[in-house]
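Weekly structure sync, notes
Attendees: PL, DS, HV (note-taker this week)

Item 1: Nose resistant to fluoxetine protein 6
DS walked through the input record. Source organism listed as Syphacia muris. Sequence as pasted into the shared doc:
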Amino acid sequence: SYRVIFTVKKVNYNRHIRILYAELFYFSNDFKNKNIARCISIRINGNRCLSTKRYHSYHSAQGLQVLATAFVVTANCYLIMMPYIENVIFSYELVKSFLLHPLNNFSFHIDGFIAVSSLFWTLIILPSYTVLILFMNCVFATLSSGPLWNHNELINRCNNNWWKNLLFINNFFDASDTCLDSGYLISLEAQYFFLLTLMLYASKRHKKVVISTAILTLLASVAYTFWTVTANSLIPTVVVSIGIRFSLLVIGLLIAYITYPYVIQAGPSTPLFYCLYAAVHRLIFALDAMALYFIIIHFIANIVTGELISFLEWRIFNPISKQCFVIFLVSESVFIYLFSSLHRPFYATHWSTLYMALGTLVLSCIIAIALDVFITRPIRNIIWYEFGMPLQQVEQRNMICLAKIPEEQLGLNAK
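Item 1 (cont.): predicted structure, written out as tokens:
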């Protein structure tokens, strides 16, 4: 009887809430309040965040983004766990394994991010990025305790350098002068987004000049990398420098220009060889990533490639690909929390590490979606609504700030 009474009261309560909501917004002439309320709606934002509808034809890029994220998160697991395991030699033995080269060289996948991914998402995730930095600065230190829980250095770094991450300039400073270690990727993407915007704007009238400048910049980036490695012996600057990774952006830009009309035995090594390798290998990898992407598009009739396309164009990759950057950022905090919350170092194996990486990937994905639904999308929708962006443009950017048309009419043109 109590259960029946509780159910009836719950139904009546939900009915009153719906009536009140309808009276305040749906049947009101105050369209501004109605639209703002719908901008922050958890149900609407959740549906749009998890929607598999796509508004473009380059679906394979989403699969490549998700796979690159999975590789980077798994590689970070092998890297971050080193201070927390008993058999430390296990991590060093991985370098000799040929099968683990995709993980040992995980920075290549970050290069693929820069060459393939949408730079516009860098600015879209700014609210989530801000929340993560504030979380690391104010809350993270109080989450747990134990013999392995010692993050005073990390917290002090965040207290003193959080503004460098928010201004996307942390990659210009030393590794000890930044909050989130993985934030350098976001900074690089934001800086490249600014440069790419200028290049695309200039290409409207001076396309040949822009392409020539891009090629010269690519060669200058390779030369700068060679000089940096020769003079500084592979310091971390090679990883986070905007000048060194600029060739990746240029590769993506040039491939887009070139393909656009068609798309609507090792000898003894020397220090010179290492320097040449460091200067060219990222450029070649970015070129390979873009070549793979466009080969997939052009040879869709091939049986093997068709199966690969079916996998990369899997619709489940659509909502996940929109959270790739946030997943990458969140995974660092999740790894640190999981490993340092242990009471003693653990014995690492491949299966335990992959299990930890898979769990972190899933948990990071859930956190990224929650941040998107509760923080990023409401803020983004309100901003776009206040700027007066038409509903169709907001819809195509997956920034739904529902306007004055019925909800069931939305997304009719989506594929």
